[in-house]
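Regression test case RT-17, inverse folding.

Input:
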């Protein structure tokens, strides 16, 4: 999948430097200057068309370089191998019980022959922290041994792609170290001192802010490891998650504290700028040096440079320079949600907000003084809305208003935390009282933030699940938005019609999910388990969803998938039987107070006395979800889609339940137009024989979901001959301990010319049909 994404990435990364270059050429100056820069600004309108192809080619070449370097490391196939590497410690980040290091230019000393002597650009190393144990220092060369692992790829629609994320950080592998030793190198005392300072500042914040210490750590030190998950979720659902990231606001406060004081004391622009630059760079390294920090740092330095040259700092020009720097260094950064939101928010302020002001007020709106807070917030929301939907699939409807009342106070929160750190680091008679007092104001504001978020959550439609828009929807939306804002500024002073004014907001509807066409069947890759989603225009049916090897299946796989498809409610959730590898995801959904809602839960009538089915029925009752019991002959209908139960019979009154849960498995015949498919759960050959004896199979089926993950005790020859499917899907996990699918089953399928799709190698498998024709797609190409 990374290859296909890499192709799209090259196109994106090629366009960004070109766009950034155009913005640089059109930078504004307070006074026209003679010389090269001035000539560029005068003749830029004719020059940029000539330079655009150059930047496009340069961007495409750099993207190809980045992808090639990543593929070269991945091709070493070090996942699961035990290796020994030597590299220089470049970064140290404490994370709960671990100390996470980044080694630069790590040479493989021991390991597979194909990897020995190879150099990994960067390597992430996890060291378990123990008391009274020495730790590596920045700049030292260390020798590390341990098990190497690659970062997980996205295997389902909507699932977070860790491999792509870490690729943007130039990381291909990580090691959980079992032993390590220093082999040489000098300690980088500058970086090491910043690391110690960060640790001490974190301890001060924990003591001064109590339970809010994790929030202050994220705000001031870029350390989100101790950020409470409930706070992260609360901010994200309400559209203010950007407040938890270090941004230009933080650097502006640091800048004012250093640069402003020096200027007021009589220092010149040069000296104040140099001192301010040193402090800002140190703070950026101390806070982790993330892409958002680097972006904010570059923009702050542009402001210093503009002041020194006597020019007016231009937001879009400095933003363009930051884009050139970051994306040239790592093209894959363009795929990060945080980077897209960071740049998108500033584009909303610098480009969209003046356009909205001109559109509504009839003013040019180039000066931020003429742009109201509502236009700024609206511009940010319009630009970042597609990014939010693409990565998070839902939109906080009242986020624009919540930002209006939270953003202005964020400076006080940062100042409060910064004062607490200063009081805590400077020895004095105040002890812990002064840091607690300093942090108190910020904590009050944070409590107010939480209260506002919970209040807005109670409003109707507070979070709209809209799904992930397609690329053509994104392109059309941004095209219309750009045209509207450009026309608003172009026709300066002329009266705008209400249609023109409302068109940017109306364009938002282009991002809404389109009505489903035909039947889409998605066989999710849930590891060792089953998970099938059926979606038509009339509704959604979930048939099983559980896993025995993925503990957080519901949170990290099932719910993101459903939301990415714009599914806020499941009409029917069918449980074939009560094994954990078929119910864990559904059980998780039933436990959530908000999120995706299940309207009706269908359980096997043969398992009425089973403990797992009873527990699910109780969970459903608590969520006001209707419970239905299904047995042979029962049928569910939803438009043109019907599901008929072939097996087993219901539990007779007074009869003891079958102890083998696999024999509870509902076998469903799916009919949609002339398309037929059989869903089998974990049915054994005993069930197959019973269906054949009862003449339950009267026609051929195009698709078979192979029973019991490809077990040798299912998918008998008689069963396959009776169904005569053209395709079969086997849901099983990579390297599962059961050996599924068994070689005997694969051989039976091969002999009959049946095309087999396995989730362990294909990832999610998707089938689309209009009732006549079929189209197959696999997530891992």
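Golden output:
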């Amino acid at each position: 999948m990374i290859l296909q994404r890499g192709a799209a990435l090259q196109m994106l990364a090629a366009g960004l430097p070109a766009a950034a270059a155009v913005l640089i050429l059109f930078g504004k100056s307070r006074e026209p200057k003679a010389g090269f820069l001035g000539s560029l600004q005068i003749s830029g309108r004719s020059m940029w068309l000539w330079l655009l192809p150059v930047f496009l080619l340069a961007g495409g070449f750099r993207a190809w370089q980045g992808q090639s370097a990543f593929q070269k490391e991945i091709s070493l196939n070090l996942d699961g191998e035990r290796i020994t590497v030597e590299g220089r410690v470049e970064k140290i980040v404490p994370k709960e019980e671990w100390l996470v290091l980044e080694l630069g230019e790590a040479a493989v000393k021991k390991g597979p022959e194909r990897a020995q002597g190879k150099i990994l650009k960067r390597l992430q190393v996890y060291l378990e922290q123990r008391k009274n144990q020495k730790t590596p220092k920045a700049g030292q060369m260390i020798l590390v041994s341990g098990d190497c692992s690659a970062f997980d790829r996205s295997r389902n629609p909507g699932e977070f792609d860790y491999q792509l994320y870490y690729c943007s950080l130039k990381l291909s592998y990580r090691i959980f170290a079992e032993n390590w030793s220093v082999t040489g190198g000098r300690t980088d005392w500058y970086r090491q001192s910043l690391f110690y300072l960060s640790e001490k500042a974190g301890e001060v914040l924990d003591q001064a802010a109590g339970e809010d210490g994790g929030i202050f750590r994220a705000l001031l030190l870029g350390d989100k490891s101790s950020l409470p998950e409930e706070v992260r979720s609360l901010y994200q659902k309400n559209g203010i998650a950007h407040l938890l990231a270090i941004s230009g606001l933080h650097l502006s406060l640091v800048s004012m504290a250093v640069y402003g004081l020096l200027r007021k004391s009589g220092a010149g622009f040069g000296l104040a700028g140099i001192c301010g630059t040193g402090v800002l760079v140190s703070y950026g390294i101390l806070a982790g040096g993330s892409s958002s920090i680097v972006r904010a740092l570059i923009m702050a330095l542009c402001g210093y440079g503009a002041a020194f040259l006597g020019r007016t700092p231009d937001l879009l020009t400095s933003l363009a320079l930051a884009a050139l720097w970051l994306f040239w260094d790592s093209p894959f950064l363009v795929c990060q949600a945080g980077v897209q939101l960071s740049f998108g928010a500033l584009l909303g302020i610098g480009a969209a907000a003046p356009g909205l002001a001109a559109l509504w007020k009839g003013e040019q709106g180039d000066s931020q003084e003429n742009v109201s807070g509502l236009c700024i917030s609206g511009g940010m929301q319009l630009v970042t809305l597609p990014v939010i939907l693409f990565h998070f699939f839902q939109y906080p409807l009242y986020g624009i208003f919540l930002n209006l009342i939270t953003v202005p106070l964020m400076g006080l929160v940062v100042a409060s935390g910064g004062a607490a750190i200063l009081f805590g680091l400077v020895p004095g008679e105040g002890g812990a009282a002064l840091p607690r007092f300093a942090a108190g104001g910020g904590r009050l504001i944070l409590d107010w933030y939480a209260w506002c978020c919970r209040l807005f959550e109670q409003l109707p439609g507070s979070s709209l699940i809209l799904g992930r828009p397609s690329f053509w929807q994104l392109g059309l939306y941004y095209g219309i938005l750009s045209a509207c804002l450009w026309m608003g500024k172009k026709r300066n002073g002329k009266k705008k019609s209400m249609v023109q004014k409302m068109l940017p907001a109306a364009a938002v509807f282009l991002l809404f999910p389109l009505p489903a066409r035909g039947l889409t069947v998605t066989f999710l890759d849930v590891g060792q388990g089953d998970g099938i989603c059926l979606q038509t225009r009339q509704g959604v049916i979930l048939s099983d969803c559980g896993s025995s090897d993925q503990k957080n299946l519901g949170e990290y796989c099932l719910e993101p998938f459903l939301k990415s498809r714009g599914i806020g409610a499941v009409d029917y959730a069918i449980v074939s039987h009560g094994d954990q590898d078929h119910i864990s995801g559904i059980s998780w959904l039933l436990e959530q107070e908000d999120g995706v809602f299940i309207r009706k839960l269908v359980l096997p009538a043969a398992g009425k006395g089973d403990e797992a089915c009873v527990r699910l029925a109780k969970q459903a009752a608590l969520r006001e979800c209707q419970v239905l019991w299904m047995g042979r002959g029962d049928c569910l209908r939803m438009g043109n889609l019907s599901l008929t139960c072939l097996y087993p019979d219901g539990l007779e009154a007074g009869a003891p339940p079958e102890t083998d849960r696999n024999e509870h498995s509902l076998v469903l015949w799916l009919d949609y137009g002339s398309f037929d498919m059989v869903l089998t759960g974990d049915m054994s050959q005993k069930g197959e024989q019973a269906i054949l004896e009862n003449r339950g199979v009267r026609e051929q089926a195009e698709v078979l979901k192979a029973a019991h993950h490809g077990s040798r005790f299912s998918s008998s020859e008689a069963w396959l001959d009776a169904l005569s499917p053209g395709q079969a899907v086997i849901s099983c996990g990579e390297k599962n301990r059961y050996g599924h699918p068994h070689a005997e089953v694969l051989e039976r399928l091969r002999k009959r010319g049946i095309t087999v799709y396995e989730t362990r190698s294909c990832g999610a498998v998707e089938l689309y049909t209009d009732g006549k024709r079929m189209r197959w797609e696999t997530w891992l190409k």
